[in-house]
């Protein structure tokens, strides 16, 4: 019996494993571990959240000493101009009042400043700083940044214009007042003031000199604390490589030293987008960064605009550009342009400007990512991604799926890797708030579902087996009737011999079309226990005849205990397929019939009515059929195997 229990419990474990293997796929799926698979949120929302940490406000500046000479009137040239004014009055070309004559003189001087004004002493100087702001983005975790060439350097002409606008305003105003003062009592109107200022704007900017010029580049980053706030500061950047400004290959590479675990954005391919696709531009429009109305914190959050890919263009020198309808403004220059999959397909460089100086939408131009890769390759720089970005993207996916408990430890890992991360503190706080409010929908761990499901299955199988064992132990005893009186010196017949076998139930025969339950061989063979040899237990006479009364095989037939197959047939305990596959539910062995749950035909077998174990059922005319394990009960003398 102990062997039986060992086999039973071994089969329980095997059955549980099979059922669990089938049940596992039904457990709730774990959170998506792919950082590139977008949750069910708008493309712009998902893309902005992923890319904002890597997009930074950049600045370039020039400092130096501006020197401007004092100007004086060229008296000879001015006298000639005065004579021309008298003639014009006499001919009626200008009015004869002094204000009209003064305006006519100022117009002539402004048209040819150097003909009427000359340099003199003293030289006037002022310290000045000029610069601009653009957009850049990290391509490696150790501090390499991409931006536009025109965002890091300017030509001499443009530089002079910037300094003139920044440093000469005060001088221009002073000089204009002096010339108007020389009109001796003529009251100047607004038009006359503008004419006077224009004269000195032109002269001073033309004769200005720059000394001690210095250039600096920087990236505006937040200090430790996990957020962009008032503690943000400019971090110096080194210019590694620079191309030609638009319409050339407008590219520049910066390096900020001492950086690690920086958030980055991945590079795509030119072929990722084509005409008609939506493009997304990230950057810092100057209309926000240059206005005093917004806080520093809000100024340092990049803006995302979108629009269709209009056409692919090429300059006369063969430089490719993409025309897009996505809006862009001054300050967006150098910003990354993304596909809907979140990969960089180019960099914003230029846009057309109207006569009034306003940016014209639908005419933004993007340098393709193939040129960016080409320029990076020239410096042996390869775009890379740190764990910071991978974990952050995974956490964002969880966050947008309302898996706040799953997202929270990943956000904290990002904060530990990169304390200066500008947005992670906000997401940590929002995740904690959502968890407290009961809004978390994180799936349970897979192992929990395995343990719960497996435990329930084990209990169920154990219960079924225990019930079956108890049923076997409580089976009713078989009644054989009054025993016959044995003859003198004869061994009493065993109980099972006092019943006559049904017709056709001899060795190798069938009952009602079925083999006996213990195999095709006879139930009790001709071994010494019951054979014709002189067995002391039953005497020397041929008690049971010369032939094997119940077959020539071993005690329970040539096969194993319950037939030629293992306990329930050659297949797995519950069939050849997992759980309830195509094989028979309880094996192909004879106990429950050759096929199906309880046989192919009839309620418990192929034909007729059978008991709960597949054998011929009780029949009033044949009491010998009321046998639990077949046609015969086991010997009552302890010989049961």
From TrEMBL:
Q: Which InterPro entries match?
A: Peptidase_S1_PA, Peptidase_S1_PA_chymotrypsin
* Low complexity bias: start-end ranges: 518-541, 557-583, 600-620
The signal peptide annotation in the UniProt record is: 1-31
Region Disordered: start-end pairs:
475-641
One of the GO biological process terms: proteolysis
Which regions are flagged for Gly residues bias?
Answer: 542-556, 584-599
Q: A single GO molecular function, which one? A: peptidase activity
Q: Does the keyword Transmembrane apply?
A: yes
A UniProt-annotated Pfam family: Trypsin_2
Name the UniProt key words of this record, in alphabetical order. Hydrolase, Membrane, Protease, Signal, Transmembrane, Transmembrane helix
- SUPFAM superfamilies for the chain: Trypsin-like serine proteases
Q: Which domain of life is it from?
A: Bacteria
Q: Which sequence ranges are marked TM in the entry?
A: 446-467
* Protein name as annotated: Serine protease
